[in-house]
Every structure is written in structure tokens, then in C-alpha cells.
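Sequence only, no structure available. Ideas?
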Amino acid sequence: MLLAGIAKSQNKTDFRLVSTAFAEGKPIPSRFTCDSINVSPPLSWSGFPEKTKSFAIIMDDPDAPSETWVHWVMYNIPNTITNLDENKSASAIKATEGLNSWAEKGYNGPCPPGGTHRYIFKLYALDQAVAETKALDKEGLLHAMKGHILAETALTGLFRVN
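Reply:
I predicted one. C-alpha cells follow.
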């Protein structure tokens, strides 16, 4: 079973990230995990700063056995985009897919080896697009965004392999 939901901004804005598939701290439905078709969930956001030029998303599992496991990295999401439909590709919105912990581009959903894990979708509002042309991993993206994050918010869901 999986959990996720609405998140509160870490900044003094009304920046919010939500999903119609799950709520903050609630189970992520199996269709978005290795138990099923493993597609990215629908996400939408609002309340971002006016000076936002682009968005970035990082989804990871801080409860993974050896280190935080990164499931999804997408950046250079245009500031005109305020939602991602289920299974939306980066190319469809002219964004850039980064590398997950499998060293692959794209979404790879929850699939913990045991127990219930938290999956955190972090959304960043940036004052510019990321200039790097090669696919960045989480650490590379965080480095490239340093000094350019206007606001961030998060949505956390839970999942346990059945």
C-alpha cells in the first residue's frame, strides 16, 4: 500500500504541490508503482513566485536501505506549465529528463525491498532554466540550481510492496 499528498511550502509563499491520485501522507496507488504499470502520477502546483522562469521535480525515497534512492528527475519545465498529467513525458512539455538512481532517464516508481517507505516529490521554482545540456542526476541538478531557487514545496506519499 502507498501514501502521498498535499505539501506545504518551505518558503513564505503559497507554493503548493498536489496530486489527484493521492493526498499528503497517504498511500500512492499501485498503478504508479512496480506493483502495476509504473507510470508517473498526475501532479499540479500553484502559488509560485511571479519571477519563476522554470520548475524542477525530484522524487526520491529517503528510507532506502543504503542511501536516498532517486526515482525521478525532471527540470526545465516551462513556467507556463502548472500540471503534469499521468505518465506525462518531459519531451511533451519541452522539459529535460534527468537521471534516476538506475542511471536512466524518466520515472521509475516506488518499489521498496521491504517495509513502508516515504516517497517525496520535491518541486522547485527557479529564476532561470538550467543551462546544462546533458542529463543531470539529483546531485548535479541541485548544484546547478544553487542560488536560483525561488521557492520549493513537497508532496509525500507512502508505499509498501504487497
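The two ends are 7 Å apart (CA to CA).
Hope that gets you unstuck.
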